[in-house]
Design goal:
Layout: H1 8-44, E1 52-58, E2 61-70, H2 73-78, E3 90-100, E4 103-104, E5 113-118, E6 124-131, E7 139-140, E8 145-152, H3 155-159, E9 166-168
Parallel strand pairs: 2-3
Antiparallel strand pairs: 1-2, 1-9, 3-8, 4-7, 5-6, 5-8
């Protein structure tokens, strides 16, 4: 006959010890889970951002958008990351403050986007349609760009946007 590794009394003490440790760890585990859930929820929800009007002029007419403008390095780095939704008439404009070759990506971006590369004078130089969500593949401006406008995927095709069209916003009037 094989002797049990733990006696009935030692098994009870061991079970009580595990239960005690679990009770100590549970609040910490729950707090970490709630903190993580709160972080994920706040990241997924767009902050109450200030929007500015922007108009795109194409052969099909004038198209109005309410856009957030990213002017700082930190704002440009964050962009639309972690957001799960953007209304149809919204967008985000990245101000690079100088015309330069621009590389964008979709890391941590859940929303499929059209990226519209714009010269200093407000003329569209390139359109990257339907950028793949969560991709780390770089998307090039082609010619130097002064700004990039991100809108929901399909918007560029819907309004007939093409290089040479005009974007009107105070950023291009200075």
């Amino acid at each position: 006959m094989v002797a049990p590794l733990l006696t009935r009394g030692s098994r009870m003490r061991f079970s009580r010890s595990l239960a005690f440790l679990f009770c100590l760890a549970l609040p910490v585990l729950c707090a970490n889970a709630l903190t993580g859930a709160a972080r994920a929820q706040s990241a997924a929800q767009a902050p109450a951002a200030t929007t500015e009007p922007l108009e795109i002029i194409t052969a099909s007419g004038a198209h109005d958008f309410a856009i957030e403008v990213m002017r700082t390095d930190e704002e440009r780095a964050r962009g639309l990351m972690f957001r799960r939704f953007m209304p149809a008439d919204r967008g985000m404009l990245f101000d690079f403050k100088t015309e330069q070759p621009v590389l964008m990506w979709m890391k941590n971006t859940y929303i499929p986007l059209d990226m519209i590369f714009i010269a200093r004078n407000g003329i569209v130089t390139h359109v990257a349609a339907n950028a793949e969500p969560m991709s780390e593949r770089t998307i090039s401006s082609g010619p130097p760009a002064y700004a990039v406008l991100e809108v929901n995927a399909g918007v560029a095709a819907k309004i007939g946007l093409k290089p040479g069209d005009k974007v009107q916003h105070p950023l291009f009037g200075r």
